[in-house]
Amino acid sequence: MPPFLRGLTLGFSLIVAIGPQNAFVLRQGLTRQHALLAAFVCALADSLLITLGVLGIGAWLARSPTLTLIGTLAGAAFLLWYGWRSFRSAQHPVALDTAGQTQQSPRAVLATALAFTFLNPHVFLDTFVLIGGASAGLSSSGRMGFLGGTVLSSWIWFFGLALAGRQLAPVMKNLRAWQVLDIIIGVIMWTIAAGLVWGAVQGQ
Fold it and tell me: Are 19 and 120 in contact (CB under 8 A)?
C-alpha cells in the first residue's frame, strides 16, 4: 500500500472513535454555532501534532514522565468539568432552537476546541506515538506521503462531522434526543477522564 493511502487509512482508523474533539465538533454542528470554525481549529491543531509526531518530536517528549503526568491530570480535569456540564444540561434539556439560544462567541469556540486538543493526552498518544511510530520505517519521500494522508483524514473527518451535525439539527428539536446526546457526551468525557487518571496511577 502506498504511504499516502497507508497514512489516510491509519488516520481514519484512529480518529473515528468518539472522543472529546468529535463530540464537541458534532455538538457545534447541531447547534449551528461556529461549527466550521471548531472543525478548522481541531483539524489544524491535529495537523500540527501529526507533523510533529512524524518528524520525531513525540519520542523526545515521551522521555519526561513529569510532563506526561502533568498533561494527563490537566486533561482529565478538563474532561471531568465538561462531562459534568453535559450531565447538568441533560437534567434540564432544551429543544434545539437556533434562533433563540444564547450564541457562543468565536473566541469561546476557539478556546474550547484548543482545550479539547491540547488537554487530551490521547491526542498526543495517537499523533506522537502511534502515527509517529508507524512512519518511522519510511523513506523521506514516503514519510511525506504518509504525513499528507494522515493530515487529510483529519480535515475530512472534522468538516464532515460539522456538516453532518447541521443535517441532524431537525432531529435534535426533540427534547429526548438532546437529553440522550448530552448523557452520551457526559459518559464519554468521564470515561476518558477515568482512564487517564487510572493510567497515571498505574504508571506511578
Answer: yes
* DSSP states of 110-149: HHHHHHHHHT-HHHHIIIIIIIHHHTTTS-HHHHHHHHHH
In the 8-state DSSP scheme, what is residue 167? H
Do 90 and 186 contact (CB within 8 A), yes or no? yes
pLDDT confidence tier of residue 16, bands split at 50, 70 and 90: low
**How far is the C-alpha of 4 from the C-alpha of 12, rounded, in Å?**
12
Quick one: which H or E segment has residue 5?
A: helix 3-15
Written as nine digits, the cell of 128 is 506522537
Instruction: Report the distance separating Cα 84 and Cα 76, nearest Å.
Output: 12
Q: In the chain, what's the furthest Cα-to-Cα distance?
A: 55
Give the C-alpha separation, 203 to 1, whole Å.
Answer: 36
Q: Name every residue whose Cβ is closer than 8 Å to that of residue 118 and which is 6 or more positions away in sequence.
A: 45
**Quick one: which of 180, 156, 177, 141 has its CA closest to 54?**
141
Q: Flag whether the pTM goes above 0.90.
A: no
Given a contact cutoff of 8 angstroms between Cβ atoms, the answer to whether 185 and 83 are in contact is yes
User: What would the pLDDT profile of 32-76 be if each residue is shown by its tens digit?
Assistant: 889 999 999 999 999 999 998 888 765 565 566 776 677 667 767
CA-based nearest residue to 50, from 156, 157, 125, 113: 125
